[in-house]
Amino acid sequence: MGASQLPEPAADAQAQSLLLIEQVRRAIADQGGRLPFDQYMEMALYQPGLGYYTAGSRKFGPGGDFITSPEISSLFAKCVARQCRQVLALVGGGYLLEVGAGSGVLAADLLAELEQLGQLPEAYLILELSPDLRARQCEMLQTKVPTLVDRVRWLDTLPEAGFRGVVVANELLDAMPVHRFRLEQGAIKEQFVTSRDEGLALVWDRPVSPGFVEAAAAVATQLGKAGADYESEINLRAPAWLQELAKAVDAGAVLLIDYGYSRAEYYHPERSRGTLMCHYRHRAHPDPMVYPGLQDITAHVDFSAVAEAALAAGFAVTGFSTQAFFLMGNGLDDLVAAADIDDVVAHMELIQAVKRLTLPSEMGERFKVLGLSLGIDQPLSGFTLQDMRDRL
């Protein structure tokens, strides 16, 4: 699907995209004519005032480009809240930190449910760099949980040290800029963005990014002969983020919820063009050059690599499960059973939401949950029904 098959942006949005393209072209010139793909992806998503997550367009929900699990139903947050309750009890209270809080609906629903469960955190911290999203989160919280807004604080960086509690990151890792590699008859190439006419183009060239060749060579070794013509992604930024997070956490758990695979599935010979995907007004397509700054660009998560980086940072890996089994491990069935079946419309909506959250053909198996911990040694409730750490 190319730009001609997508809805045309409004004039002001197109102007914004053109401004971003000019900034990318200047960055390309500053680097001698080519920009590593991860740097382009970072600009397309996060360039101040112009990137997808920083420029103010609506991203989440029916009016945006995609819908996340928390927006489908409050059941998602209610189950996650039960996992948070367990961890907060284990560490004797503490904080809840959400990294990248999107529309704010998960924060609002988590706070509401934790209040019902009698286990409110001392404060709900939100690490959010987008001023526009901060404003939307604040509005959502004021609307849904006005009596709990005073408990919320926004952060610009991870806490420096001494954090006790739970860190939740829902669909964060997939939005981290990735490097793209190509294996060509034993040669390793890196993807770059270059200037072409008045726009931008993708090219493959000799690698320059630190750590890139080693990571791509490891994939080539795994693939063997099947990697003669193969393209995919590597997240070289997650390890540094996990190192910083480990420095901040004194005791508690980290819940990483995202779509992805173990390494063997991620770099399967049949997945020979990688997992990079773009989303624009609920349409998915693979071209990251379309409407820079106006569309989301994501890559699936290699959970094996994340688990290895977490262990290297000092975390324990306490569980790995599908979203469906994680939600059921935290009481989804009980929550559905307690619903009012006499309210036919509400009950049908509830059942439809459960299907979207749990069915293998929907989000149930495509989304995974990786649990990390520091300073606690009890099993986490979300991984009691299924734990796939042996597949990592």
Automatic annotation (TrEMBL):
Pfam hit, one: Methyltransf_28
Alphabetized GO MF terms: methyltransferase activity
Keyword match Glycoprotein: no
GO BP field: methylation
Keyword Zinc attached: no
InterPro entries for this protein: NDUFAF7, NDUFAF7_sf, SAM-dependent_MTases_sf
Entry keywords, A to Z: Methyltransferase, Transferase
Protein name: SAM-dependent methyltransferase
Organism expressing this protein natively: Aromatoleum toluvorans
